[in-house]
Write the structure tokens for this entry.
Amino acid sequence: MKVVFEKSVAGRRGVRIPQSDVPTSVHLKKAYLRKQPAALAELSELDVVRHFTELSRRNFGVDSNFYPLGSCTMKYNPKVCEQVALQPGFANLHPLLAQLKGGKTLAQGALEVLHQMDLYLREICGMAGFTMQPMAGAHGELTGILITAAYHRDRGNRKTTMLIPDSAHGTNPASAAIAGYEVKVVPSDSRGCMTIQALKEMIDDRTAGVMLTCPNTLGLFEPNVREICDLIHRVDGLAYYDGANLNAIVGKVRPGDMGFDIVHVNLHKTFATPHGGGGPGAGPVGVAEKLVRFLPTPVVSKAPDGTVDLDFNRPESIGPVAPFYGNFAVVLRALVYLLITGRDGLERVAENAVLNANYIKEKLKPYYDLPYPQVCKHECVFSASRQVKENGVHALDIAKGLIDRGYHPPTIYFPLIVKEALMIEPTECESKETIDGFIEAMIEIAQKAAADPDSLHAAPVTSPVGRLDETRAARDLNIASL
Ligand SMILES: *Cc1c(COP(=O)(O)O)cnc(C)c1O
């Protein structure tokens, strides 16, 4: 396919407007003016529309088909959330309005959105206060760890290490390291959960806290979660809950009730905002009562007269962590999602997410190795080890084979503790027919691996580009040849 510049024909236009008969007045310095017109493609309106429509068809997204990418999956993204986020009253609001004299009254609707979301997330997570500022899950983690550091400074604690299990999402150790902590990796046991004995041996006076994803990246609920929190609290450490994928437990159990002090949730995974290509996201952070005073400024709070205000006067706060109030439109979509889903709906989200993952796990168990066979939560992790050993077919080949069958591949080679991992998350919103179609494709691929492994080595053959040298593609991108 040609790039848009190759389709350009000199003088071709989409729209022609008459020459202006008003004298132009230029205020920019001459040095800043273009000497020649910008080198834009010259095309008719039809050419442009067809070009970009064709490009969009080469994209794969939740609007195309099943998207079982484990862990970072987009769950349910109702279109009504988009419609509300596009309302001009929200979309055109200037972010500084709420801080201008008299502007607070005009911004009450938007401030109320932030306040309502704070209250709902407190209720869902069992926390005492939330900030909406962090603009991603990883950003939420960093905010949480900075709050941890503020807590220890305030207590005069000398803490240097953060404990993180080997199944953790890569952002966990990265966030702890950026905040200045030394990361110690806690090994998982044969059941895929944190080894309590190892944890006990690693905890000492320098332990600042533990970061736990629960259910973990194997989709398994940590059975010793209370004990882990108690052990950490005994040395005045803090327990951090990575709630990026809250769909596994939402409406059922609350991190605060399990003993956690800090939690982040990914609104762009569990609560409605489509994501990809780096954003936009929101990773609100919730904290227990003893940490509320460290939350980033401004804190959104309600005055006794019912007006919502921004509180900048928080001397112990870690300060702002994002421009203005974070990604407001993402928070807004999440609020709409919560309002249309309701309390009972949220419980069903968790039930269906878990049911769907276990259905896939049971159906595919005869065909792929399942290193951790317990009941899983929102995702299940298979291994392609059997296919590698018997047929020389790797997780990568299976993923590419799925592309030819019209599916987005699952996450592969993660978590790192599973060799040849295939991490599948169906989400709560897919129909049985869709999931059955995916299962059939996976079974067919397992059979192909035995009968005709080379067809999988050659996959994908139906996509605009075939098997790429992925390292070279990233470093030496050449889209013109596609
Ligand atoms: C996605 C994810 C993160 C990071 O979230 P981002 O918004 O991508 O920064 C952290 N932990 C877990 C378990 C995740 O799935």
